[in-house]
Amino acid sequence: MAASQTLIDLAQTQRALVAQYLATLAPNVSIDPTSQLPPNPPNPLHVLRDSATLLKAHTTKLALLLINKPFTPTAVTSVLRDATQTCLPAMMSAVELCRPDIWGVFLHHQVVAKVRTVMREMVSFLEEVLDVAREENSSNHSKNTLASTGVLWEACDALILLDKTGIAGLAVLKAQELRDTINDAIEELKEWEEGDGDDDDEDDEDDEDDADSTSDDQNERDDQDEFDDMFSAANKLPKDRLDLKERLQTAADKLKKIQFLYAAITKRRLKTFTPDVASKKVNILTLDKLMHLLKELPESVDDLANAFYELDADQVDTILNTCIDNACSAADLLKTDWNDKDDEFTAWVTKWTSVVR
Hints:
By secondary structure, the protein is mainly α. The protein contains 13 helices and no strands. Helix 1 runs parallel beside helix 3 (73-97). The N and C termini lie far apart (75 Å). InterPro entries: GCIP-like, GCIP-like_N. Residues 48-194 form the Cyclin-D1-binding protein 1-like N-terminal domain. This is Cyclin-D1-binding protein 1-like N-terminal domain-containing protein.
C-alpha cells in the first residue's frame, strides 16, 4: 500500500509539473530573447529527437508494467521517475534553445506546438497511471493504457520526425498544406457558382402552383420567396449578378496562378534551403517572412470567399488585390537565390508577376 501511495504522489507531482510546462508552452507566451544560452549549445532538434526516443522507450516499459500482473508499484515508480525527470526537462530545454531570433519564428512555433502535444498527452498518460495505481486490482485498464500509450508515441514520433525533416522539409510540407487550402477554396467557389441545379425545376413547380392558388396564397408565397432569396446567396451565385460572375472567373484565374507560385517556390527555394543556407541569419529571417506571407494568403482567400457569399463586389475587389499584392511580395522576396544571385527562378518570377497583376 505504501508503494502504491508513493507512486500516486509521484504521478500527481509530475502531473502538476507538466501542467506548468504546458502553461509555459501556451501560444501567447514568448521566450525572452535576452536570456543567456550555454556555450556551444546543442542542436535543439537533436535534443528533441533523443529525448522523444527515450520517452517512447520509458512509456513502453511503463505500459507493460501497468497492464501485466502482478502490479508492481515500485517498478512503475522507478521508470516513471526516469521518464518525467529526464525526458520532459530535456524537451523544455530544447524549446529554450530553439530561440526564434536564432532558429527562426517558423521553426520555433513548430517545435513549441509539437512539444506542447507531447506534454498534453503526457498528462493523459499520468492520469492513466494514477487510475491503475488507485485500482491496482482492477483488470479493466489494459485497453485505456494501450490507447494512451499509443497516442503519446505518436506525439513523440512527431518530434523525432522534426529532426529528420529539418527546417526545409517542414517549410515544404507547410507550403503544400497552404496550397491545398487555396485549392479547396477555389473548388468551393466553383460549387457556389454552379449552385444545386434545382432552380429550374422549382420554378416550374411554382408556376404550376400559381395557377391554382388564391390571391392570399400567392401573397404568402411571394413573401416566402423574398425571404428565401435573402438567404440563398450563401448557397449559390444569383443569376442576375453578372458582375460577380465575372469577378469570380477573374479570382479563380488569379488564385490558380498563386497556386503555381506556391509550387515554384517549393521547388526552387524551399527544397534548396540546405543547412548551409540556414546557417546564415539573413536567410532564416527571409524564410520567416516568406512563411508568414504564405500563411496569410489562404486566410485572405477565405475572406475573399466570404465577400463573394455576401455578394459584396467592392470587398471582393479589395481582398483580391490584397491577395495579389501579398503573393507578389512573396515572389519578390525570393526573386534571387539564397546567395542573392539571379537564376532561372528570377526570370520566372518577373514573368509571373506581370501575368498575375
